[in-house]
Amino acid sequence: MKKIFFLLLLGSLFSCSSETDKIIISSTKYVTKAYPEKARIWDTITIEGNYLKSISQIRINNRFVVPIEQQENSIKFVIPPTIHNQKVNVEVLIGLSPVGRFSLDLIGTFPLETNFLVSDENLRCIKMVSKDIAFVIADSKLCKTIDGGYNWTLIKDFKESNLSSIFFINENQGWVATYRNSENIVHYTNDGGKSFNPVFEKTIVSQYIKEIYFSSPNRGYLLTSNGRIYETNDNSNFDLKYEFPNSGNIRPPMFSYLSVFNNTLIASSYEAFTIIKKKNNFFDYTSFNKEVTNIQLIDENQAYAIIGNQLYFTEDINTNWNKTSDKLIGNFYFISKNNGIGTFSNPINNYEMILQTYDGGKNWTNKFTFADRQNSQDIDFYENVGLIVGMRGHIWKHIYE
């Protein structure tokens, strides 16, 4: 009887000991802290906690990464360029079992994995109407996203016509410019692309509508590639308001960019070395000794422009333009007077990079490098969120911190 009691007691002790061990294991807090909460591609993330040398794997959005440093109370790893989502979910595992989870947000530039990569279409002319909703030209197609660029749906395939420009003021109201041979048509939709009606039709030999801008459903501008500017106040009658000298020549200079802020307008030509200006209903132009590409008004007076592959700024579009730095910039977009991003092609390997400035272009910092054969075509922002589109279906997102 005593032996039976002793065995029962011994079994009870072992049972309690085993259960206690399980409680200790399950209640151990491996991860106590992770920082920073916002990070860029290639940034280092630090995890702090206990018994972290026993961690065997780190999983980020279902992709495994190798720590660059692992100690008993800390682990460090790098955000790889294979991450394609703004929300980054991190799991810390022992074997196959997660023992810690946390999330962080990507900022800066990072690539998106979209259905365009399958179709290998060239993307141009991105227009954002909110942080989630945007429209883009994909060869002959107009496409739309409602989730910030991760998924895109076909709105309309214009097939045999070439798409030259788009502009949307909201999710429903927008304009699409097409040309076929010499026939130029601007199509208008007020139902998000379910139907389109022509509002502008004109024969322009060897030229096309290069840019569209509307401030309301009725008031807007069209810029043709030969430097003609049309204006409408009813989205029906488009009056020719300005015609650049020599625009009627067989080979007129090419105009590429248009920027409008209230009643001020500027347009640029990389062949005529010229910026057309409209202020208070008066048109004029300024000539330069270098090609002029992208331009952007910050307000009715201040503007940025790429002149001779370098960024220039003016406090008044009617006065001098001043170079901000010697940095070579291809394309750019500013969300405020000081904060902007620019593109730069590395002369050594020809890889394109995204640079960022916080002081109006005086200083630039390399923030992201594209992979081989990846090139950007256009940039647009809505508040602090931007989309960069490029050749062969590539899209990148940029989020200002």
TrEMBL record:
Q: Which PROSITE patterns match?
A: PROKAR_LIPOPROTEIN
Q: Which InterPro entries match?
A: IPT_dom
Q: Describe the location of the IPT/TIG domain by residue ranges.
A: 35-96
Among the Pfam families in the record, one is TIG
Q: What start and end residues bound the annotated signal peptide?
A: 1-17
- Keyword annotations of the record: Signal
The domain of life for this entry's organism is: Bacteria
Q: What name is this protein filed under?
A: IPT/TIG domain-containing protein
The beginning of the lineage is: Bacteria, Pseudomonadati, Bacteroidota, Flavobacteriia, Flavobacteriales
